Amino acid sequence: MTRSHRLFDLMQVLRRHRGTVSGQTLAQETGVSLRTIRRDIATLQTMGADIRGEAGIGYILRPGFLLPPMSFTTEEIQALVVGAQWVSRQTDDGLALAAQNALAKIGGVLPPDARRVLDDDSMYVAREREDESGLDLARVRQAMREQRKMRIAYMDQDGSRTERIIWPVVLGFVQSQRFIAGWCELRQDFRLFRADRISKVEFLEDTYPRSRRQMAKEWCAQVDARRMADADLASRPTDAGLHEPSLATFRPEPLEGGGEGSPDATEPHHR
Fold first, then answer.
1. Conformational region of residue 93, where left means phi above 0, alpha means psi within -120 to 50, and beta covers everything else
2. What is the enclosing helix (H) or strand (E) of 26?
């Protein structure tokens, strides 16, 4: 590995950790000695990288520093292509266009050999059936970014209709279904809403007071706790010697009368 590639890899590791990371961890992840890490950190600092910290404590990279363009590996390029295909065929028009634009920007800085890998049609992601909810997911994402509330008319799987004000925190894509996880003012708890059961939506000017990122972490923690509880329950034999099935696969709270969840939904990945 050339020194320039080693410096680039070190930058990538620092970016990935986002917080303070020890020199020993950097050495393990980049496959070099701790002494080399210290020397490379000093080199990056002289190049203008805002890396704070010192030996024995750890290092953190402040945002805003870019190395000159470097080549992607073949596997990295193929991963980007597959990811862009998935976004283009599984989400919505706004994200699909963004994914295509991102690939075009990447292709513009790649050398010719790497660009051929980018254009190679060796990977394929199937397209699920079109989402029929009619919900403007771009507006949902904007509401999440701006931490704005939504007023929705919602119908559960039993046909009961309610009007809710929700604080959207996570947008989920599960096969052909779209979900919004958020705080429900009516229930005073996190709830999961299927987009195809939202019959009416109003994007409000009111903002919710808490950090969306923190609330998303709390929702994920509830999902993890529910999953662990279900796994523990499933490991215990019933009187008949069988395992009880779990109804909660994509929601942190119990289903309430067939409420806002889908008991047969496949688990998504939101991390």
1. alpha
2. helix 23-30
What is the value of pTM for the model shown?
0.60
Q: What is the DSSP letter of 21?
A: B
Vertex 197 angle, CA 193 and 199, to 5°: 115
Distance CA 6, CA 31 (A): 9
| Residue in the structure block whose two tokens are 């809403």 | 193
Reference 32, options 2, 58, 57, 60; nearest CA is 2
Instruction: Please give the pLDDT value at position 5.
Output: 78
- Write out pLDDT tens, residues 153-208: 999 888 889 999 999 999 998 877 889 999 999 999 999 999 999 999 999 999 99
- Cα–Cα–Cα angle for 96, 100, 103, rounded to 5 degrees: 140
The DSSP symbol for 195 reads G
Compare 89 and 218 and report the one with higher pLDDT. 218
* Element containing residue 166 per DSSP (H, E): strand 161-174
| HSE (side-chain half, CA atoms, 13 Å) at 257 | 6
Q: Which helix (H) or strand (E) holds 219?
A: helix 212-234
Bridge partner residues of 201 (DSSP): 152
- Which two three-digit tokens encode residue 137? 């997911």
Alpha-carbon span 4 to 10, nearest angstrom: 10
